[in-house]
Automatic annotation (TrEMBL):
Gene3D superfamilies: FAS1 domain (2.30.180.10). Keywords: Signal. The lineage of its organism: Bacteria, Pseudomonadati, Bacteroidota, Flavobacteriia, Flavobacteriales. Residues 44-188 form the FAS1 domain. Residues 1-24 form the signal peptide. GO terms for cellular component: extracellular space. Pfam families: Fasciclin. It comes from Muriicola soli. This is Fasciclin domain-containing protein.
Length: 192
């Protein structure tokens, strides 16, 4: 009888430990993922594999495909991508997106998209540190070769393009296996 009690206690202990371990794993996973456009962004997936699931980034994904940049953004990186939402693209003058998506404008589209990418992984903390070190602003050279200026407005990171247009980071530090995404509310434009 004593042995059955010990076995029962051991079984209960194993169940409790298993449940506790699963809860801890679930908790860790939920802390690592972020919701963007109604979809979880998994740090174990690359930038493109996550972005295709965001309903807020369908225009960006279509543009990346049209520009032939899918393989690049699935590469090792690391990359920092300032990802404009569909609403950000809608702020552009009417017809701009349709024009950029035409095959004959592929190089212009590539220039616009790579202006939203930094080589290396820059967390929001790193960007803010650079802004503070730069006495209120920091300049970053994008993959297309032009510069973006980062600054703070309150606690929000903002980006200023070469034409003076301002974009605000609405969701930061969406970690990816090959970098990080910061969601932005406005498309920034390089010199064209």
């Amino acid at each position: 009888m004593k042995i059955f009690k010990m076995i029962r206690l051991a079984a209960v202990a194993v169940l409790v430990l298993t449940a506790t371990s699963m809860t801890a794993q679930d908790s860790m996973m939920s802390q690592e993922t972020k919701m963007v456009g109604g979809a979880e962004m998994y740090p174990s997936k690359d930038i493109i594999s996550n972005a295709v699931n965001s309903k807020d980034h369908t225009t960006l994904v279509a543009a990346v495909k049209a520009a032939g940049l899918v393989e690049t953004l699935q590469g090792d990186g690391p990359f920092t991508v300032f990802a404009p939402t569909n609403k950000a693209f809608e702020k552009l003058p009417e017809g701009t997106v349709a024009t950029l998506l035409k095959p004959e404008n592929k190089s212009t589209l590539q220039s616009v998209l790579t202006y939203h990418v930094l080589a290396g992984k820059f967390s929001a903390t790193k960007i803010v540190e650079a802004i503070k070190k730069g006495k209120g602003k920091a300049t970053f050279t994008t993959v297309n070769g032009d510069t973006l200026t980062a600054m703070l407005k309150g606690k929000k990171v903002q980006l200023k393009d070469v034409a003076g247009n301002i974009s605000t980071v609405s969701i930061s530090d969406v970690n990816q296996s090959n970098g990080v995404i910061h969601v932005v509310d406005t498309v920034v434009l390089p010199v064209m």
